[in-house]
């Protein structure tokens, strides 16, 4: 072995299985395998009560309802009130998803919360969500992959169920971006919003979550980010919380041109042709990005496209599960439909997978 290290007798990939009783002098660990396949079993959502029209946003950024609609497609969004916390919205969306899946909270082995707006550095939001849901002490952790966080969570849940680490996993995408968006920032004030969506992932008789295609481009780390870190903000005696800033043009170009390839890779990895697709559920960043993606992918006309951004705004990690819930509720997506999920954002990070809808 290079570097003179000790050669392990059965490093991966193992050539031969261990003989009965294991190799002499070598302790063989017992391992577990889960279900051959996993799928999304139920979907839930929480939308904050307060609807905020463009007219409430545009004066502070010297803009207009017409400009915002034309550049983003957004007409209204929802902002959470004090009681609609990250945890409260997550619990509500998860309860809906569990009910839709017919799963009792005590059957849940793991809770994954994707968010960038749980403003307590530690502990995670997920442990509190797992507790309030009434799980029996489920494993619980948060994922920070910005707008791509929910699709990262679904990928992990798929592998946890198939690998035997969990039988039922609740995956939540949740944000209160109104807390970290400056009302006077022209590039973001009209875009970001609040809400929560959740799914239950569990065993499936047929493959219902395809392989994830995911990645990152840290060279573009600064394109969407918290303006400054908390320490710097405190040291500078900043008058307000650090908020999100975005180089909109560059993000637009990256998402429109690079994500089409990622979408096609996810289809190929799942063995699905674009003609077999029923629904396209991209991150609800901006209707123009969705249009550009659909064009670059050559999406057939029969594929239903999620447009939740029009009245939910961009809710980052919550946007894909909220859009999914909306399509099911409106009858645009039905059980057994084949849907492509794709999400992208700060990092830059992205993740995509094909799923069969519950
Ligand atoms: C944010 C976004 C809508 C801005 O649109 P844009 O066309 O790139 O805007 P620009 O910054 O190039 O500015 C174009 C013009 O609009 C003006 N403008 C910028 N923001 C404005 C606003 N909120 N209201 C009115 N006018 C605005 C600029 O001053 C500029 O005017 P000028 O041509 O007279 O100089 C666009 O970049 C975008 O959608 N980016 C992707 C953002 C996104 O969805 N991110 C989420 C990914 S997770």
UniProtKB/TrEMBL annotation:
Q: What is its main location?
A: cytoplasm
Give the record's keywords alphabetically.
Acyltransferase, Cytoplasm, Fatty acid biosynthesis, Fatty acid metabolism, Lipid biosynthesis, Lipid metabolism, Multifunctional enzyme, Transferase
Q: Where is the signal peptide?
A: none
A GO molecular function held by the record:
beta-ketoacyl-acyl-carrier-protein synthase III activity
Q: Where is the Beta-ketoacyl-[acyl-carrier-protein] synthase III C-terminal domain?
A: 267-356
Where along the chain is composition biased (Basic residues)? 1-11
Residue ranges for the region (Disordered) are 1-24
Q: Where in the cell is it found?
A: Cytoplasm
| Alphabetical GO biological process terms | fatty acid biosynthetic process; secondary metabolite biosynthetic process
**Part of which pathway?**
Lipid metabolism; fatty acid biosynthesis
Tell me if Cytoplasm is a UniProt keyword of this record. yes
Q: What is its EC number?
A: 2.3.1.180
> Which chemical reaction does it catalyze?
malonyl-[ACP] + acetyl-CoA + H(+) = 3-oxobutanoyl-[ACP] + CO2 + CoA
Q: Which GO terms describe its cellular component?
A: cytoplasm
Q: Which NCBIfam families match?
A: fabH, PRK09352.1
The entry's free-text remark on domains says: The last Arg residue of the ACP-binding site is essential for the weak association between ACP/AcpP and FabH.
Quaternary structure, per UniProt, is: Homodimer.
Write out the function statement from the record: Catalyzes the condensation reaction of fatty acid synthesis by the addition to an acyl acceptor of two carbons from malonyl-ACP. Catalyzes the first condensation reaction which initiates fatty acid synthesis and may therefore play a role in governing the total rate of fatty acid production. Possesses both acetoacetyl-ACP synthase and acetyl transacylase activities. Its substrate specificity determines the biosynthesis of branched-chain and/or straight-chain of fatty acids.
Q: Which family does it belong to?
A: Belongs to the thiolase-like superfamily. FabH family.
> Which PANTHER family does the UniProt entry name for this protein?
3-OXOACYL-[ACYL-CARRIER-PROTEIN] SYNTHASE 3 (PTHR34069), BETA-KETOACYL-[ACYL-CARRIER-PROTEIN] SYNTHASE III (PTHR34069:SF2)
Protein name, as recorded: Beta-ketoacyl-[acyl-carrier-protein] synthase III
Q: Which organism is it from?
A: Nocardioides humilatus
């Amino acid at each position: 072995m290079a570097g003179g290290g000790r050669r392990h007798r059965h490093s991966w990939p193992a050539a031969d299985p261990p003989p009965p009783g294991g190799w002499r002098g070598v302790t063989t660990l017992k391992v577990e395998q889960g279900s051959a396949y996993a799928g999304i079993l139920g979907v839930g959502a929480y939308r904050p009560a307060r609807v905020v029209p463009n007219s409430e946003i545009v004066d502070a950024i010297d803009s207009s309802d017409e400009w915002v609609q034309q550049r983003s497609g957004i007409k209204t969004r929802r902002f959470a009130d004090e009681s609609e916390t990250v945890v409260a919205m997550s619990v509500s969306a998860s309860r809906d998803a569990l009910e839709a899946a017919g799963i009792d909270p005590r059957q849940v082995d793991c809770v994954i919360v994707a968010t960038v707006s749980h403003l307590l550095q530690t502990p995670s939001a997920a442990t509190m969500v797992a507790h309030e849901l009434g799980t029996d002490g489920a494993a619980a952790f948060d994922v920070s992959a910005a707008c791509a966080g929910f699709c990262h969570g679904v990928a992990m849940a798929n592998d946890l169920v198939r690998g035997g680490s969990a039988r039922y996993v609740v995956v939540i995408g949740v944000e209160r971006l109104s807390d970290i968006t400056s009302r006077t920032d022209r590039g973001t004030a009209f875009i970001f919003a609040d809400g929560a969506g959740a799914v239950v992932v569990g065993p499936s008789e047929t493959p219902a979550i395809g392989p994830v295609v995911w990645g990152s481009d840290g060279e573009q780390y600064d394109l969407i980010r918290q303006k400054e870190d908390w320490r710097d903000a405190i040291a500078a005696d900043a008058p307000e919380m650090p908020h999100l800033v975005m180089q909109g043009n560059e993000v637009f170009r990256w998402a429109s041109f690079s994500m089409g390839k990622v979408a096609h890779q996810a289809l190929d990895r799942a063995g699905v042709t674009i003609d077999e697709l029923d629904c396209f559920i991209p991150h609800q960043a901006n209707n123009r990005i969705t249009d550009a993606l659909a064009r670059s992918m050559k999406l057939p006309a029969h594929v239903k496209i999620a447009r939740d951004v029009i009245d939910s705004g961009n809710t980052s990690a919550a946007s894909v599960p909220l859009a999914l819930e909306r399509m099911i509720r409106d009858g645009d997506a039905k059980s057994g439909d084949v849907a492509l999920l794709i999400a992208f954002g700060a990092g830059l990070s992205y993740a995509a997978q094909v799923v069969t809808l519950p």
